[in-house]
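Here is one chain, start to finish.
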Amino acid sequence: MGRFVPAGCLVALLVWGGVGAQRQPPAWELRSVLRLGQDDSTSSLAFSPDGSKLAASLTDVNHGGVKLWEVASGKMRAVFDRQHQVNVVAFSPDGRMLATGGADGTLQLWEAVTGRERVRLKGHPQPILQVLFSPDGRTLASAGVDGAIKLWDVPTGRERATLSGHASLVWGLAFSPGGRTLASASHDRTIRLWEISTGQERARLKGHPGRLRCLACSPDGRTLAAGGEAGVQLWDVARRQKRTTLTGHTDTVNGVAFSPDGRVVASASQDQTVRLWDVAKGKAALTLRGHAGAVYGVEFSPDGRTLASWGQDQVIRVWTLDPSKP
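Its structure:
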């Protein structure tokens, strides 16, 4: 989440639609290049619920913590806790809190405005790779290298449940829109669906030819997008069946995100590109280039008009949908 240094524009033209139907896709412009700095790198980024702020986890062993920026101005507003290596960051639904997961297995909750630490939670014996608030903000899910998923009660800071079953580390978590179900994606090549109220596994989605690195749920809860060594797969949640595989990336997919309207999936890959996919057609619509190394993740702003990507080159690229172009 960056430092906003104005950069050039990138407009890609592609053919959309079926045979004989051609039109220009929505144009995405590279608005800003945000440079983390020589000693900083990030593996996780999050927009605030109102889209006004951007938070980045800092993963360097000697320069950890979280940086917080104002999106409109590009000014850095705060730095939280430079003492801990942070792997992942997430905003609460009301935007008042930030959750961070550390390389030491520590989970922390912060006041987003003041940067004051509210609570520190211990439960994972190994690095945390994912944290996620439930839609109502009352539950926090965390997962990581130990393969376990923990559910925490946000108001009290108490651990509610441990969801066990994955045979390897867990990279991806996604709540259903109503918060009743949690999906998890693991290196064990499975996606599991958990019932939050009971902590029971309700379904197991198999069939991935490679290890999984990321997971996202569509806004309507009907589709899961899972990425990893074998590209991106779209799953029909109700039928527990794979809908399609999105082919085009030439290396491992590290991050996926749905647009707020659910019509587009963005993916970030080791092949140094970000791709935007038409969900209905299961085809690539646009490829965004510019990163000088592996791309670790992508995130849409809440209004869907801004897309942030970040990666190995210690740069965050902020892309904006140009409203003047179709």
